[in-house]
Design goal:
Helices cover about 30% and strands about 25% of the residues. By secondary structure, the chain is of the alpha+beta class. The strands form eight sheets. Strands 4-31-30-29 form a four-stranded antiparallel sheet. The longest helix has about 80 residues. The termini are far apart. The N terminus is likely disordered.
Length: about 675
């Protein structure tokens, strides 16, 4: 350590030199200041000494530092000589030098205002006139700063008002544009109605001609006011089954065979709607109007979205012919919305067409994990924790009594099953994935396995056949791997390593290269298998694991998650189209199925929910009530829907719950 004498001499010059002396001292360099700083550091705390005390051996310390040290050890921290508190002496000179050095350092780094404040606090001598001049300068500076701040505030306010005005003008222009769309569409619809009225009057006039009087009587055998209503002229038959009656003829009239009607117990709960099966045409129209008013907000948004989209598209001269009004005089946007409105208001509830119980009273493994139609929609397969794949004939299930239902084929597996996928090109070929990670391809005709793939290390949750390349299928597993298989080879063709568990995989129906992957990382990963090193796009928005992904079309992808939402995505534009809410799904796999216009899923409340793809709220729902069970409604509520599947091109679907009950449900007005 440098001696105290040296540090003091560096801080304070020993000789006061005259201004003209050539040997005048220069300001200390940076290295000298750093050296001085080191000399005045306390060896204990390594900070500038505060309240310096000198030991008998000639070392300086902070008073509190050396006192604390001596409470534990009676020696000098620097030279280890014997030392007690009685051998400590205050170093007044060093304290004074340190205070001056500190003040000098503050003066060098302080702002002019801080220096002025310090000078005034230290009693700097100045005249009254100088103080008045100084106060005048300060007042001018204050006034200038206040004016600048006021101008800044006004500029911010003006910018906000301009922005608000622009936003409101844009909204006004948009409203004017929307009103113009509505005006044009009202005129188009009214013109169309006038045409209908003219045709109706012409048709009525034709019927009233004398030459047609006899034929008119034959057409209407009853007086108009006494004619039986439509409900008394027909026998109540489950909708969607007329083709079975026409094809089967008298076959369906055999004793013991009947069509399934709604279960006798009356459903209870907030989701139940009044029966509208036997409503007259005017009553049905009124019911459809009520549905419009109930969902008016979503329908309004749908109309404006479609109208604006097609209006923007029509500005492209290359698409002028494509966007021209159709033969009814409707614009493309109005035509699209009319299709949505008609399909959405057509149905309001679901009714039971048939019921099939797979539950075993002496076995708790009743959960149906997957249910799928074959390529012709004539057969459907079920699988679950029972370790069996059961194949049923759909027509028999619908037409035969429930106690006479047996599978037409059955395959036994080694492990619990998680997913099924029919080959849509090769008849009688179906693939399954199980809890051991095995992916199996079956021949339903022989009830034997064709191929078995055992590369997955953990449970395989999902499997799917390609629609465009029938020899290819894809699977996803808890081992965080997606594997693409070919039925012509034993090993996987492509392997994709992910960072999270895979819950669902699905081929794009229009491509053998594009797949969607639902993952436990809350995202949907969309891949082109020709470059499997990275995804084309990652769709984000779900807050929990993505349990299912299904394609409505080549560009529309639906996803389900345990965050109790469904989402519709555009895989071409890489954007979210809509979020669907209404069901409950927080921990179980409750199923997802899609059609061209409708999306259906299960719920942990033992209900099936149906959404129209353009409306975010449920269009219809159905609560499972087992008419053959003695369990109360509270016990039934402990079950959940585990699998759902649409019958292609039909308002009919299959749904199964965790009790093992399978129902054929149909949409109804």
């Amino acid at each position: 350590m440098v001696s105290l004498t040296t540090s003091i001499s560096d801080l304070v010059p020993m000789v006061k030199l005259e201004p003209g002396d050539s040997c005048a001292a220069e300001p200390p360099s940076t290295s000298e200041v750093e050296e001085v700083d080191k000399d005045v550091l306390c060896p204990i705390c390594m900070q500038i000494i505060k309240d310096a005390f000198l030991t008998a051996c000639g070392h300086n310390f902070c008073y509190m530092c050396i006192l604390t040290h001596l409470q534990n050890k009676s020696s000098c921290p620097s030279c280890s000589r014997f030392l007690t508190p009685n051998l400590l002496y205050p170093n007044f000179l060093l304290n004074k030098l340190l205070m001056k050095a500190s003040a000098l350092q503050i003066a060098r780094t302080a702002s002019p205002l801080e220096q002025l404040r310090q000078a005034l606090e230290q009693g700097c001598e100045t005249s009254l006139k100088e103080l008045e001049n100084l106060m005048h300068l300060i007042a001018q500076k204050k006034s200038k700063m206040e004016q600048e701040q006021a101008e800044s505030n006004l500029q911010i306010l003006l910018d906000f008002l301009h922005c608000l005005r622009k936003k409101r003008l844009d909204e006004l222009n948009e409203i004017k544009s929307d009103l113009q769309f509505i005006k044009e569409d009202i005129q188009a619809v009214e013109m169309r109605r006038i045409e209908f009225y003219c045709r109706k009057d012409k048709y009525s006039a034709t019927l009233s001609l004398p030459s047609d009087e006899a034929s008119s009587r034959s057409l209407y055998p009853f007086p108009i006011d006494k004619r039986p209503s439509a409900t008394t002229l027909r026998t109540p038959i489950a909708p969607g089954l007329s083709h079975h009656l026409s094809s089967a003829g008298s076959q369906n009239k055999k004793p013991g065979i009947k069509l399934y009607e709604s279960p006798s117990p009356v459903e209870k709960g907030p989701h139940c709607l009044p029966q509208t099966e036997n409503l007259t045409q005017s009553q049905q129209a009124l019911a459809r109007k009520r549905r419009v008013h109930m969902q008016f907000g979503d329908l309004q948004e749908c109309y404006l979205q479609k109208r604006r989209y097609w209006a923007r598209s029509s500005l492209d001269p290359r698409d002028k012919d494509m966007h021209a009004s159709n033969r009814e005089g409707f614009s493309q946007g109005l035509q699209d919305f009319q299709s949505v409105l008609s399909s959405f208001t057509r149905y309001s509830r679901m009714h039971v067409v048939a019921e099939l119980s797979q539950g075993d009273l002496f076995h708790s493994a009743n959960i149906v994990s997957s249910i799928e139609f074959d390529r012709d929609d004539k057969l459907f397969a079920t699988a679950g924790v029972s370790r069996r794949i059961k194949i049923f004939d759909f027509a028999s299930v619908v037409n035969e009594p429930a106690d006479a239902q047996y599978p037409v084929a059955e395959m036994v597996t080694r492990s619990k099953l998680s997913c099924l996928s029919w080959n849509k090109s090769i008849k009688n070929q179906i693939a399954s994935s199980d809890y051991e990670g095995i992916v199996t391809v079956w021949d339903v005709a022989t009830q034997q396995s064709v191929m078995e793939y055992e590369e997955h290390e953990k449970r395989a949750w999902s499997v799917d056949f390609s629609r465009t390349e029938p020899t290819m299928l894809v699977s996803g597993s808890d081992d965080c791997k997606v594997k693409v298989w070919c039925t012509r080879q034993e090993a996987s063709a492509i392997n994709i390593d992910m960072k999270a568990n895979i819950c669902s995989v699905k081929y794009n129906p229009g491509s053998s290269f594009h797949i969607a992957i639902g993952s436990a990382d809350h995202h949907i990963h969309y891949y082109d298998l020709r470059n499997a090193s990275q995804p084309l796009h990652i769709f984000s928005g779900h807050r929990k694991a993505v349990s299912y992904v299904k394609f409505l079309s080549n560009n529309e992808l639906a996803s389900a998650s345990t965050d109790s939402t469904l989402r519709l995505w555009d895989v071409k534009e890489n954007m979210l189209l809509r979020v669907f809410k209404g069901h409950t799904n927080e921990k179980n796999f409750v199923g997802l199925t899609v059609d061209t216009e409708y999306i259906a899923c299960g719920s942990e409340t033992n209900e099936v929910f149906v959404y129209h793809k353009e409306i975010s709220k449920p269009a219809a729902w159905h609560r499972f009530v087992n008419s053959n069970s003695d369990e109360g409604e509270e016990a039934m509520g402990s079950y959940f829907i585990s699998a759902v599947c649409w019958k292609s091109g039909s308002p009919t679907m299959l749904a199964a719950n965790s009790q093992g009950t399978i129902k054929v449900l149909g949409l109804a007005p």
